Amino acid sequence: MTEALVIDDNRNTADALVGMLEMLGLGARPAYGSSAAMALLQTLTPSLILLDVNMPGVDGLEVLAYLNREPRLKAVPVIVITSDDQPETKQRVLENGAESLIVKPASLATLEPILKKVGVL
Q1: What pTM value is reported for the model?
Q2: How many CB atoms lie within 10 A of CB 105?
Q3: What 3 state SS string does 50-118 have?
Q4: pLDDT, tens only, 61-114
Q5: What digits encode the pLDDT tens for the residues 14-72?
């Protein structure tokens, strides 16, 4: 089973995204914030990462930079899910290696086609 990692400092959002992924047949686990995610990513190589941008401490852009520097994680598709709908944010996350950006709230209807496009469904 494919295992995704959902990184969001909002527990409700992270849990909802995990639930959506599971409804689509993917295994998923939450990381409630970037610190928890960075700890998990020391040993976990997920098949997909859903990533929030605006988090306290290390933000999503810094997580993307880390993923790009780490050979084991560089090829993992990242979908950014954020409340920040500014064009500059979309440009920055795509320039930094994200496959796509979804503006919150995410839904199955917006998530499923993107997951098919990146090849995890």
Answers
A1: 0.95
A2: 11
A3: EECCCCCCCCHHHHHHHHHHCCCCCCCCEEEEECCCCHHHHHHHHHCCCCEEEECCCCHHHHHHHHHHH
A4: 999 999 999 999 999 999 999 999 999 999 999 999 999 999 999 999 999 999
A5: 999 999 999 999 999 999 999 999 999 999 999 999 999 999 999 999 999 999 999 99
Using CA atoms, how far residue 25 sits from 4, 30, 77, 81, in Å, is: 11, 16, 17, 19
Cβ partners under 8 Å of residue 99, min gap 6: 77, 78, 79, 114, 117, 118
As a whole number of angstroms, the distance between CA 79 and CA 112 comes to: 12
> Could you tell me the CATH superfamily of domain 3-118?
Response regulator (3.40.50.2300)
Q: Is pLDDT at 1 greater than 60 in this prediction?
A: no
